[in-house]
Design brief:
Structural class of chain A: alpha/beta
Keywords (chain A): Carbohydrate metabolism, Glucose metabolism, NADP, Oxidoreductase
Distance between the termini of chain A: 56 Å
Order of helices and strands of chain B: EHEHEHEEHEEHEHHEHEEEEEHHHHHHHH
CATH class of the largest domain in chain A: Alpha Beta
Strand content of chain B: 15-25%
Low-confidence stretches of chain A: 1-8
CATH superfamily of the largest domain in chain A: Dihydrodipicolinate Reductase, domain 2
Oligomer: heterodimer
Distance between the termini of chain B: 32 Å
Largest sheet of chain A: 10 strands, mixed
GO molecular function (chain A): glucose-6-phosphate dehydrogenase activity; NADP binding
Shape of chain B: elongated
Structural class of chain B: alpha/beta
Strand order of the largest sheet of chain B: 1-4-5-3-2-6-7-8
Radius of gyration of chain B: 23 Å
EC number (chain A): 1.1.1.49
Shape of chain A: globular
Number of domains of chain B: 2
Pathway (chain A): Carbohydrate degradation; pentose phosphate pathway; D-ribulose 5-phosphate from D-glucose 6-phosphate (oxidative stage): step 1/3
Number of domains of chain A: 2
Protein name (chain A): Glucose-6-phosphate 1-dehydrogenase
Mean pLDDT of chain B: 78
Number of helices of chain A: 15
Largest sheet of chain B: 8 strands, mixed
Strand content of chain A: 15-25%
Number of strands of chain A: 18
């Protein structure tokens, strides 16, 4: 078979023809740990949705690898159920018929050499039967401890070798280690087998439309960029709150905690996108360069005790339901010091942001599920109105609502109708659901497609991951040796210590 | 929420829109465009339904302009405007105003529509049927950045394509073109997989389906090779066969939903290519509001330049509809390409030869005869009379 000739050589491809979608070239996806929750709820439906939107190449193949004793048909049935239950787009038989031809299942454990030989046989068979051209992405939806063994097995059985212009890519999920040292070890293991540009680290937040919109908002418009700096911005709050507890993830969560689970990846990526300088172009290298620069400029507060807070949820009432405390959850040591809430203050040492604090917070069992970035502006330097008129006026703010109810809110003061001069906060709202499609593509759809296209814009790179750990490690070390997490009742917005942390600087947390 | 206004004016309608929004408690306007649908009573329901479905992706203010027929001279001198204002759940995700025009005002519909356009938002005008000959010069069409017509709904679709090419203005677009996006994208993907030079192409589909001609013209325009249009029983497009210097590349869809892609030296693959409903087409159309240069270029290629020589047509049809020996097919196509270059006057000959044939006949006649139908239609020189005749 002739190799992929590239879009430049294809006379039917024309950059001016914007109706034609980007379709991935001939390829297949191998999912390790295909029986897991992520695979059923996100990956399989995303593959179907992509196929339904006509974005997958003809002959696209999906290979499942797991321990379960399944035939190809059982696997197909499982995918079918997952797609019916979780896909975003309606189920269409002909799309399913297209997909099912390329579905294979390989049974085995990760240390089973025979299984990996079978996997290689399957891939070779698919190249012949489906024309996948040797292009395969390996999605490692497996526990972190299995990473090294799977990667080694791929190497041992020649599955990671790129021959005759074909590509082999590895897709890995967080956690990317649990501190700088382990992250470096993990990177070493992965890079020994896959070249850095063939490794895709999934941070599903970056696949979200609203997160990509941060770049559009900042760099496609003129009205925001001039005020996006220390002369106008008072501080920035980045929040990711969950209303659920740890559920059945006790084994994973205990010892990791909120800061490692969320701040290290999601929140620091959001910070990087919010604070970075304008990239020279929108390609992966230019973006990564700017993100790396801004992450490298992050400075920790000197007094970590005063400017960081961690907490654990205690028993309480959450949205009308009684919730148990973290220490009472099944499988959690009653003496656990793991944080389920973390708030930190960071500063960015560059000309744009010097002196502007970035407050990051995340937690479980908070008031409601919400992720947002709030850029809070300074108060007007002089007000011609007397103080009673502006008593209810807060600071202006631009809030990027990442989820749910994706959109952007601008808050400013406006006169209350009436004979007296009274100014109050009002908000102006842009909601994605209102102005654009009812259902934006799922983050995983976008990310899987980008993996197949080899487009690494939306994937954090090794340096970004290591820089993030450099930011978080001193905080974790401080927490390990000082005190213990503050308790906060489930269903509230975190421990009082967090409120005090901001109050000391004359600020307060937004109620998201 | 629904408000009926009888014998009304645009400013009263605007007032009703504002009041309606207040009443249902959503004073914010998040709509991104105004969609004007110009239709007759017969097609109003279907078009509005499609537009409402599409508005879930593109929240819009939809103005349906229904031009009523006046049956007596007295009716024609009076004029009246009735409106039906729909908001909230009754109007997809946006606002809908159905405007019914009687009498003289029928000829001045733009005066009703202009005050009702959303400020600062793009305007799209869509004629589901009876599109004017020159959409950009039409008083309603002139209000829009984008003018959507549908040659599929025309009496003589292929002739209408020629007319559209003559009056093309940036911003014009045709739902028959929108219909073939999945085909185009699949064909482009197919050529991504091989590094071969295409030598000739055959596009097969039902008669009176301008999508086939548009696809053929696009292929001819992009590939610069002879393209033949042949007929089948449908539904819609049924196959595209490209002969390349490394064997045929065939995309075959017999049943209107699941297609087979066969490439020489590669296994056959099933691909989903479902015929889409109008709502999906409109939603795609509203996604991009800039002029579609690819469409313009394909349209201007000209229907009459398809089926370059009669020899070429025969060469294709002898080998039948694709089941034959592929290698032989390829050789024939190679010849055909040569012939096409040698006889530039051929299209005229084809057109003349087919003159006077009954159009209906073509369906049953063998492929050689039927294949000439599009060229014949295109070559007919009488003016297109459909226009706003209804």
């Amino acid at each position: 078979m002739a190799p992929f000739s590239g879009s430049g050589a294809n006379p039917l491809r024309d950059p001016a023809d914007r109706r034609l979608p980007r379709i991935a070239g001939p390829s297949g996806l191998v999912i390790f740990g295909v029986t897991g929750d992520l695979s059923r709820k996100k990956l399989m439906p995303a593959v179907y949705d992509l196929a339904n939107r006509g974005l997958l190449p003809p002959g696209f193949s999906l290979v499942g690898f797991a321990r379960r004793e399944w035939e190809h048909e059982d696997f197909a049935a499982e995918v079918h159920d997952a797609v019916k239950a979780h896909a975003r787009t309606p189920f269409r038989e002909e799309v399913w018929q297209q997909l099912i031809q390329g579905m294979r299942f390989v049974q085995g454990t990760f240390d089973d050499d025979e299984a990996f030989e079978r996997l290689r046989g399957t891939i070779e068979e698919l190249d012949k039967a489906q024309g996948t051209g040797g292009n395969f992405a390996f999605y490692l939806s497996v526990p972190p401890r299995s990473f090294p063994v799977v990667i080694q097995q791929l190497k041992k059985h020649g599955l990671a070798d790129q021959k005759n212009g074909a590509w082999r890519r590895a897709v890995i999920e967080k956690p990317f280690g649990h501190d700088l040292k382990s992250a470096e070890e993990l990177n070493a293991i992965v890079h020994e087998v896959f070249a850095p540009d063939q490794v895709f680290r999934i941070d599903h937040y970056l696949g979200k439309e609203t997160v990509q919109n941060i770049l559009a908002l900042r760099f496609a418009n003129t009205m925001f960029e001039p005020i996006w700096n220390r002369s106008f911005v008072d501080h920035v709050q980045i929040t990711m709150a969950e209303d659920i507890g740890i559920g059945g993830r006790a084994g994973y969560y205990d010892g990791i905690g909120a800061a490692r689970d969320v701040i290290q990846n999601h929140l620091l990526q959001l910070l990087a996108l919010t604070a970075m300088e304008e990239p020279a172009s929108f390609d992966a290298d230019a973006l990564a360069a700017e993100k790396t620069k801004v992450l490298g400029a992050v400075r920790l507060p000197e007094n970590l005790g005063e400017h960081t807070v961690r907490g654990q949820y205690a028993a309480g009432w959450q949205g009308g339901e009684k919730a148990v405390g973290y220490l009472e959850e099944d499988g959690i040591d009653a003496k656990s010091k793991t944080d389920t809430y973390a708030a930190v203050k960071l500063e960015i040492d560059n000309r744009r942001w010097a002196g502007v604090p970035f407050y990051l917070r995340t937690g479980k069992r908070l008031g409601r599920r919400v992720t947002e970035i709030a850029v809070v502006f300074q108060r007007a330097p002089h007000s011609p109105f007397d103080t009673t008129a502006t008593e209810e006026l807060g600071s202006n703010a631009i809030v990027i609502r990442v989820q749910p109810d994706e959109g952007v809110t601008v808050r400013f003061g406006s006169k209350v109708p009436g004979t007296s001069m009274e100014i109050r906060d009002v908000s102006m709202d842009f909601a994605y659901g209102e102005s654009f499609t009812e259902s934006s593509p799922e983050a995983y759809e976008r990310l899987i497609l980008d993996v197949l296209l080899g487009d690494s814009n939306l994937f954090p790179r090794t340096e970004e991951v290591e820089l993030s750990w450099k930011i978080l490690d001193p905080i974790e070390e401080y927490w390990d040796t000082h005190g213990k997490p503050a308790q906060y009742p489930a269903g509230t917005w975190g421990p009082v210590e967090a409120d005090e942390m901001l109050a000391r600087e004359g600020r307060s947390w937004r109620r998201p | 929420m629904k408000t009926d206004l009888t014998d009304t004016t645009a400013s009263k309608i605007n007032k009703a829109l504002v009041q309606g929004r207040r009443a249902i408690g959503t004073p914010a306007v998040g709509m991104v465009l105004t969609l004007v649908i110009v239709t007759d009573e017969e097609n109003a329901y279907d078009s509005l339904k499609a537009a409402n479905d599409a508005s879930r992706e593109h929240p819009s203010r939809t103005l349906v302009v229904v031009k009523r027929v006046s049956r007596s001279p007295r009716d024609r001198t009076q004029s009246r405007l009735d409106a039906e204002v729909r908001l909230g759940a009754d109007a997809g995700s946006g606002e809908t105003v159905v405007l019914r025009l009687y009498g003289e005002v029928v000829d001045h519909a733009q005066s009703v529509v202009l005050p009702l356009l959303l400020p600062d938002a793009p305007v799209v005008v869509w004629w589901p049927v009876n599109a004017p000959l020159d959409p950009a010069k039409d008083p309603l069409g002139a209000l829009g950045q984008r003018r959507v017509t549908d040659t599929y709904a025309a009496e003589q679709p292929v002739r209408e394509l020629t007319a559209r090419a003559e009056t093309y203005t940036p911003g014009d677009t045709d739902l028959s073109w929108t219909r073939i996006t999945p085909w185009r994208s699949m064909l482009a993907a197919a050529l991504d997989q091989v590094s071969c030079r295409v030598e000739s192409v055959e596009v097969e589909g039902e008669e009176f389906n301008p999508s086939c001609e548009l696809l053929a013209m696009w292929l001819a325009d992009r590939l610069d090779v002879p393209v033949k249009r042949s007929l089948s029983g449908g539904p819609g497009l049924t196959a595209v066969r490209m002969s390349t210097d490394c064997g045929p590349v065939v995309l075959d869809r017999a049943d209107g939903s699941l297609a087979t892609l066969s490439i020489e030296g590669q296994p056959d693959r099933a691909v989903a290519l479902k015929r889409r409903d109008t709502a999906e087409l409109i939603a795609e159309e509203l996604r991009r509001l800039d002029p579609d240069d690819t469409y313009a270029s394909a349209l201007r290629y000209g229907v009459d330049r398809l089926n370059a020589t009669s020899d070429a047509a025969e060469a294709f049809s002898v080998d039948g509809v694709g089941d034959g020996d592929r290698d032989r097919d390829r050789d024939r196509d190679g010849e055909a390409a040569g012939d096409a270059a040698a006889e530039p006057e051929a299209p005229e000959a084809v057109a003349k030869g087919a003159d006077g044939d009954g159009e209906r006949e073509a369906v049953e006649t063998p492929v050689e005869e039927a294949a000439k139908a599009p060229a014949r239609e295109a070559a007919a020189s009488e003016p297109v009379t459909k226009g706003a005749a209804k």
